[in-house]
Structure formats: C-alpha cells, structure tokens
C-alpha cells in the first residue's frame, strides 16, 4: 500500500492519537508541570514501540528525559536520525484562548477548510513530531523501510535544550547517523511547499536597572532622581538608530552578507506585503532600512524586547518611582555571528550607555548558533524529491527566522546536517494563544516523510 492510501485509511486514528498526546500539558518552563512532562515522555516511548521501533528507552539527563528509539535493519544502509520535542510553550495568556489549550478541538479556518486541531503544541512540536512516528508506523507495517532509523525526542527544546547538549557529548556513537530529519518549522503555504534551509541563532539576556534603594513617592522625589524605568526606556530606544540598524559596536562585524544573486533568488518566493499587513492588522511594516520583509525576518539579525516591567502595574494609579526596572531582550543572529561574543558585546555596550545615576546589570540567559542547509546536499535533494512526489511541485528553499539552537550543535557534535521538513504555516500561532495545526498539513506530512527515506536511500547508494 502506498503512503497516501495508508494515510487515508488510518487518518481518523492518526488524528485521535495526536489529540490524546496534546491533552498532556508538557510545559517545560514551569516546574508545576514536571509530572506531565515526564508522563509525556512515557507516552512517546510507548508510541515509538507501537510504531515498530525495536528498541526504545527513556534516557535520563540532568533535566527532562530524552526518548530514544531505533530500528536498525542493516548496518550497510544509511541511518536517519529523527529529532523532535515533546515539550511545549506555556499557554499564557490563557484568557485569549477560544478553547482551553489542553483540551484539543477541531475547527475550520480560512486557511484550513478541512479543519485544524487547536491546542498548545499542536504544531510546535507534538503534531509535527508525531508525523514521524506515524510515518514510521507506515514504513514498518508495509515493509517499506529503506533506511535504519533512530529517534531522539527531547523535552527541553522550549527552554534551551541544555540536557540535549549534555546527552550529545556522551552518546556520539549511539546517535551516529547519515542525516538528521526534523519537522519543527513551517512552509510557505499549501500551494507553495518550501523546505527550511536556515535557522537564526539567538542570544537572550535579561537586564536590570536600579535607581534609588527603595520605591519613592513620585511627588516628593520626582524630577530629582533618575527613574530606572525612564532610563531603561531611553537605553533600549538607543539600541536602534534611525535606519533601524542595531547600534551595538561590532554587532554586524561577522554578519554574512548575501550576494545580489542570492537575494534575487529569495525574492522569487511568493509574498504579498498587503496580505501580510492585513493578517497582522498593521498599517505598515517596519524594519532595517535597505531590506525586504522576508530578508528582515530571516537573513538579518535583530534585537527585540520580549518583556519589560517595573513599578506599579496594578489597578488604578499609584504615584511611585520604582527602585528597579527590568527587561528581557532577544537578539536573533545570522551566520557567522557567535552568540557568546554577541552576548558579551551587548553586555559591554549596555553597561557603557548607563548614566551615572543608575546601576545596570546584564544577565545572559541561553543562546545558539545560526544554521544553513546547503541545497546541493543529497539530504536536501531527497527532501525536495519527496515533496515533488506528494505536492506535485518542487519546494522552494527558504531561510526561517526562528531558532532551533541544537541544530548547529548537531553539526558540531555529530558531524551531520539537518533537513528541516516543516509542515506548519506561519498563521498556526505557535507560542501564541489558539495554536493550531491543519489536519491537511498533518496528514500531508505523514504522507511525505516516507518518500524522504526512499529518496535518501536511493541517492546515498549512488
Ligand atoms: N519550532 C520552533 C522554532 C521554529 C519555528 C523555527 C518555526 C522556524 C520556524 C522552536 O520550538 C522554538 O520555539 N525555538 C525558540 C528558541 C528556543 C531556544 C526557545 C525560538 O525560536 O524562539
Ligand atoms: Mn519547536
Ligand atoms: Mn517553540
């Protein structure tokens, strides 16, 4: 039976199984959900066993466990390592969800007339990870497995994959592979399939600005002492110039500039600024001068405040000058920026622009390196051929603005390239309220993945 027929025959079960997985709130960022995160790893283990893995284990780490599964059919055949994550983002703000985040429901939308599953993790990444489990089920049940398979599904991606780094260093041999296959990104649209060929890096920091040693009456002291919130706003505002260039000295030194040819190639991807603005309810786009929207959100580095707080934010008014102000800031990085170096440059610069009237502390969080998949690599070609089989079109290579920091580490530690076959849409609201994953996308993913194995085995044996 071919993949399409198998998916058609089993689609109701595939949907229901995913719904069960989505009911467990595996929020890695919040310790209150620890038992649920662990329970999810156990469910993933049993699903991998059911899908035909010969050996599945829960690998303990200093943090959340990694689920490892494998089916080795012939040492002479190539090995595909599937990576995904079973943890999800916190669902907050809960009141903006139309249905509870861990009670999945199927609803139709304009872009998903066949329905989409609404739940936290539906697209990022439980739904996309589970496509691989179902593709494995198809291949083992129909004797269509042309490669060895290893699964490595982690539970800390949304909080920086720290334990996975630890695990990689200790298990290089066990994880040895010819290619890494990941579905944790998106594609342009159902009509225009694309394969993600780049991820941005990341440097995440928190800053703290301290003014007076206690909160003050804003009448008695206002005007005479520095207000840390005012100062923090000034400092943050100064991080971009009038062209929206980032002002940190040295920030752009290692940024790879794309050639005019490469930029022209990028510009061929279908895109409507009007539709983009309309989808976000904005009157005008915004960004670095000299670059298009798609360049700004993929090949250019950024600096954004992710959260800012301090002072009184409760009901009504309170006249106060706070002692402290805080912000969380992310910088998305591109090849060949080094995240540790950028974090240092940020720290040095941010401390240097602080006025004498306040104290500033910069606390680095996590980070990661950008990644690019070359399109002349056979893994990319296998993926491209797989999409041709199921979409009837050659997919467009597209660099994404998101980050999966572990992918660059895979290259360093395991010496393998990653293929990013994402089936989500930008409108799926990952990390936002009402996250969803189109049923069409989910089933198309399951249908396409086995074709990748087939083409990879074929191209590898050439
Ligand atoms: N799956 C996303 C990354 C992603 C989504 C890349 C869509 C490209 C397209 C991943 O789970 C994620 O959210 N990554 C974080 C970084 C991580 C260190 C928390 C991100 O990009 O913010
Ligand atoms: Mn993800
Ligand atoms: Mn995510």
UniProtKB/TrEMBL annotation:
Keywords tagged on the record: Hydrolase, Metal-binding, Protease
Protein's organism: Nonlabens marinus S1-08
Lineage, top ranks: Bacteria, Pseudomonadati, Bacteroidota, Flavobacteriia, Flavobacteriales
Molecular function, one GO term: metal ion binding
InterPro entries linked to this entry: Bact_exopeptidase_dim_dom, Cyt/Met_Dipeptidase, Peptidase_M20, Peptidase_M20_dimer
Domain Peptidase M20 dimerisation residues, every copy: 198-356
GO BP annotations, alphabetical order: proteolysis
Protein name, per record: Acetylornithine deacetylase/Succinyl-diaminopimelate desuccinylase and related deacylases
